[in-house]
């Protein structure tokens, strides 16, 4: 794949689970389809009738993996599924989740959204005691810790295991006892509970509920374990309370605009980001255009806040696959042009404001600016609906290293010159937090913008992270 097509912070993962439905696997397939934006590298489903477990996995997109024939191999009234973007471990079939194991206490399947900051340390310890790992995924550490636990119940064993891990996690477990959901005590990644007639559903985002016509009930609280079985939903809060650290980038980019995250509709937040940006960084112009689709909601807000007309000056090709054949003859900006094309009638002779959600390496922004100028734009003013990204994320987002983040070692003026825009401005941190009204500003994780990490790292792992600036895997 051409690198500049993906000059974004990459989505982490998606989880979906359902209990008490005769078409559990098909509902899970639909839920994963609705959550495809959170991970496109691989997908898997594990189903069960409480006795036998069945699994189907593959590399690629949900619709390509789960044919009718494969779904027929997934009987049972409960299931969990996972869409993967590799934040830890290489992209191979063995790392595709849900992970499933048979151990002394029965069968257990796991789907994980997030990243464990002490996974390597725990893995070394477990291997020293004879544990054999089948994958390079950090999630497998949790499975081994549960298997080693002496707890009486599965909830006890999960609690003991998670008491040893550090980092961000929204987890789904499937066992003979039913469906279990867990969210870390910081609440970094979202996890929501819904109901479909007599069935209960858990998912990363509420948009998965809309597709299957499930009713949204509530968010799983930070530090909560919910057990769903024939008794209904039982809640446990066994973990020590910590300050909340909701990932603010869910509102900026990751979650779908139609989802309800951290107590608020994502579209409404993103539109307010644009309104704030228009107030903070006004400029005389003729038209506001988004970089689709990531900048669309904020561009609508900017247009509303500034009174400048909104237009589609860039059209996105939604059918770009995982690979494509590049021509032998060089085509300028090929990687971006296969994904975006200009509407010359909108841009020619105009002073154009271009809205995007973030600027990571700057390579894509530079190519977009050059495309718009080639279409005849008179001036190009780039506006970013989030602050400058200064630091990597270690909580479940595949971020470039600090050296690759252009804002970490360049000024706004340096970046403006690099992308060849006539002006460049970012939303302030205060503007970002004002736009996400549902929570106290102190309850959000803003580490990628500030370098302040709310979840402590073990000393050995902290040295490794910040000495080498490695990507979370």
Tell me what you see in this structure.
- The protein is of the alpha+beta class and 473 residues long.
- The protein has two domains: 12-245, 4-Layer Sandwich (Glutamine Phosphoribosylpyrophosphate, subunit 1, domain 1); 269-319 and 329-437, 3-Layer(aba) Sandwich (Rossmann fold).
- 29% of the residues lie in helices and 25% in strands.
- It has helices at residues 24-34, 62-65, 68-72, 119-128, 139-148, 154-162, 207-212, 249-254, 266-280, 296-306, 334-337, 344-347, 363-374, 412-419, 429-435, 447-450, 459-468, and strands spanning 13-19, 42-48, 53-59, 78-84, 99-103, 106-116, 167-175, 178-183, 192-196, 199-203, 215-219, 225-229, 232-236, 246-247, 260-261, 264-265, 287-290, 314-316, 340-342, 351-356, 379-384, 423-426, 444-445.
- The chain has a seven-stranded antiparallel β-sheet with strand order 3-2-4-1-10-9-11. A six-stranded antiparallel β-sheet has the order 5-6-7-8-12-13, covered by helices on one side. A four-stranded parallel β-sheet has the order 17-20-21-22, sandwiched between helices.
- The two termini are 19 Å apart.
- The relative contact order is 0.13.
- The model is unreliable at 1-6 and 463-473 (pLDDT under 50).
Keywords:
6-stranded antiparallel sheet, 25% strand, single chain, 17 helices, alpha+beta, 7-stranded antiparallel sheet, disordered N terminus, Glutamine Phosphoribosylpyrophosphate, subunit 1, domain 1, Rossmann fold, 473 residues, 2 domains, 23 strands
């Amino acid at each position: 794949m051409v690198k500049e097509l993906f000059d974004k912070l990459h989505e982490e993962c998606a989880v979906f689970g359902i209990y008490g439905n005769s078409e559990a696997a098909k509902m899970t397939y639909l839920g994963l389809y609705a959550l495809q934006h959170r991970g496109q590298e691989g997908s898997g489903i594990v189903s069960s009738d409480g006795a036998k477990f069945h699994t189907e996995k593959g590399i690629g997109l949900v619709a390509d993996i789960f044919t009718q024939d494969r779904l027929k191999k997934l009987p049972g009234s409960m299931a969990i599924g996972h869409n993967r973007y590799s934040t830890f471990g290489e992209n191979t079939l063995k790392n595709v989740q849900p992970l499933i194991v048979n151990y002394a206490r029965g069968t257990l399947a796991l789907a994980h959204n997030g990243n464990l900051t002490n996974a390597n340390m725990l893995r070394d310890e477990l291997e020293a005691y004879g544990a054999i790992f089948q994958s390079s995924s950090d999630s497998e550490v949790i499975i081994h810790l549960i298997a080693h636990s002496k707890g009486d119940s599965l909830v006890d064993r999960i609690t003991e295991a998670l008491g040893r891990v550090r980092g961000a996690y929204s987890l789904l477990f499937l066992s003979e006892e039913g469906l279990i959901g867990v969210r870390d005590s910081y609440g970094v990644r979202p996890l929501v509970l819904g109901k479909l007639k007599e069935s209960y559903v858990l998912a990363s985002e509420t948009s998965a509920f809309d597709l299957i016509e499930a009713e949204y009930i509530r968010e799983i609280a930070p530090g909560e374990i919910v057990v769903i079985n024939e008794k209904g939903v039982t809640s446990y809060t066994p973990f020590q309370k910590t300050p909340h650290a909701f990932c603010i980038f869910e509102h900026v980019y990751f979650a779908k605009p139609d989802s309800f995250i951290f107590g608020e509709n994502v579209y409404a937040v993103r539109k307010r980001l644009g309104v704030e940006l228009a107030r903070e960084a006004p400029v005389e112009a003729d038209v506001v255009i988004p970089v689709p689709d990531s900048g669309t909601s904020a561009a609508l807000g900017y247009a509303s806040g500034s009174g400048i007309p909104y237009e589609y000056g860039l059209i996105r090709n939604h059918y770009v696959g995982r690979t494509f054949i590049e021509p032998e003859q060089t085509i300028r900006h090929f990687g971006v042009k296969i994904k975006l094309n200009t509407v010359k009638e909108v841009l020619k002779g105009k002073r154009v404001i271009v809205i995007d959600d973030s600027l990571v390496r700057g390579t894509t922004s530079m190519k977009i600016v050059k495309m718009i100028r080639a279409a005849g734009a008179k001036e190009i003013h780039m506006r970013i609906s989030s602050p400058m990204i200064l630091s990597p994320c270690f909580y479940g987002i595949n971020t470039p290293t600090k050296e690759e983040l252009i804002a970490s070692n360049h000024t706004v003026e340096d970046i403006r010159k690099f992308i060849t825009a006539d002006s460049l401005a970012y939303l302030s941190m205060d503007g970002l937090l004002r736009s996400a009204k549902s929570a106290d500003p102190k309850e959000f994780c803003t580490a990628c913008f500030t370098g302040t990490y709310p979840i402590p790292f073990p000393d050995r792992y902290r040295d490794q992270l910040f000495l080498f600036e490695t990507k979370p895997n």
